[in-house]
Every structure is written in C-alpha cells, then in structure tokens.
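Re-run with default settings, no changes from the original entry. Doing this only to confirm the output is reproducible before filing.
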Amino acid sequence: MAVSLNILIVALSLIALSPLCLSSKAYESGGYLFPQFYDHSCPKAQEIVQSTVAKAFAHDPRMPASLLRLHFHDCFVKGCDASILLDNSGTIISEKRSNPNRNSARGFEVIEEIKHALEQECPETVSCADILALAARDSTVITGGPSWEVPLGRRDGRGASLSGSNNDIPAPNNTFQTILTKFKRQGLNLVDLVSLSGSHTIGNSRCTSFRQRLYNQSGNGKPDLTLNQYYASVLRKQCPSSGGDQNLFFLDLVTPFKFDNHYFKNLIMYKGLLSSDEVLFTKNRESKELVKLYAESQEAFFEQFAKSMVKMGNISPLTGARGEIRRICRRVNHAAY
C-alpha cells in the first residue's frame, strides 16, 4: 500500500510539473523553463519587452512578423540560444549571412533596444534567448493572435552555426517530406508543422523565394499548377523571371497585417505564396485535414499555435550554468568591451 501511495505521489508530482513545459531536451540541458523565472530577479522584464514591441509595431507594421521569424530561425539552429543574433567576431561566423537570413532577417535593432532597457533595469539577468521568445509572443498578440505563458530561463549560447542555419531551417522550395523531416529533427511533429506555418498569416516574402513557382517549378519551364493561375499572373507583374529579387509580397494577401486564419483559407484556394505553404494542402492527407480544420476554426488554430510555440521554444535550451547572459545580444560577453 505504501509503495502504491509513493507511486501515486510521484505521478501527481509529474503532472503538476507538466505546465512548466518540461521537455527531454530541457532535462538534458540541466534544468527546465517556467514562466515565473524572472518574477523576483526582474519583475518588469515582460512589461519592458511588450512595450518595446508595441513601439516598434507602431513605427513599422512589418516588425511583428520579423520578430516572430527571428525566434523560429533561432530555435531551429542549435536550439533556442540566441545564436542568430551574433555578429561575426573571432571564431564566430554569423548566421545572419546564411541563405535563410541574408537580406531578409530583420528586427535585430528592436532586440538590442529591449536588451539595453533590461540591462538598465536588471543587469546581466534576462537572456537574449528569452527576449526572442517573449518578443515572438508579444508580436503575435499585438497583431490579433493568441497569447500564452512563455516558459523562461534560457541562457545564451557562445557560438553560432552558419551550416546549421543553411541546412536545418526549412526552405521555401523544400518538399513536404523534407520540411517535415526538419521539424521532426527538432522534436516537432506534423501538427506543429501545420500550426506554426500559420505564422505566415503576417509578414512578407521576397520574389526570389517563390519565383520558381511562376516560371519553372519542376525544371520543365512550366509554372506550378497548384498555384491559382490568376494569382500567379498578378504576381508575375512584380516578380519577373529575372531581376526584382528583393521585391516584397504579402504572405497572406487578404489580411497581411492581422494574425488570423486567412492563411489557411488561402491554401484551400491555392493562393499560398510559397511552395512550402501550399504543399501543406496538396501533398499530405493529414496536413490537408488540419489546413481545413484551421480554415474553419480560428479558435482551433490559435489554441494549437500557442501550444506549438511553447514546444518550439523548448528546443534544446541552455539552462543552469550552461551558456551565459549576454550583456549585448550581438556578441558574446568576452568580446563585449
């Protein structure tokens, strides 16, 4: 009886801890994340992040999508350790020059502004990795999306991986299976893939990221027939077969600055801008059903998006004594003077 009681107590303890967003990868790092991490050491941390994101949004409506993307591109390379923020220095080769980030990753100055304010409020306390996670949540909320409690306590890495950035982040022209494989390598599944892709309800993409769909999708000189052909004709006017690489296009042509479920409705109408978006509807039966569900129910999308963002934010965090708390997000501490 005593043995059974002890087993029950252990089980209940594990259930009680589950909201703190533990993961096997977090355990491997020597600790876990929880939303109240800064309640005593820096109680105004979340308020400072939120207000700075709001100010950036008022100045530039594109900024929330850019900040959300920074968190995603950070977590898929070496885990959520703010490696994407590092500049070239010493032995560090910056991820900012990788194919997914070059000429497109932005919002670094907003992260540095947040970090500067936090260093004034509570020096050497809040990590750049946690700033990225909080800014991603606040960017979602300020554009009309769901909110969630962000597990905190990440520390910052002391290195970057250009090759990881080039190889681990899903590319716009990857096949469905390649994209799913890249998600699974991070401990994410198909549901996470579809829901997190819904972040493309805000933001822009460059002509160079989808040009092949307009002119030469399969190497035969023909366009992608899973792209609505009228929509394709509109896109060709500003995305020629050569030149105009940096021309910007809304990822969601209906409500480009509002976080909602129109992204999924667009996919059903074959108006997903990127190939990596449309394949969610055309290449896999399970993902197609999820696209239809989220197109019908914004509530279902919002609920799963929040869960998947927490899960993504738990990819291999540095905790405990691992890593550091950078004083300046773009460089490691030994180079900060």
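The chain has a mean pLDDT of 91. The first helix runs from residue 2 to 17.
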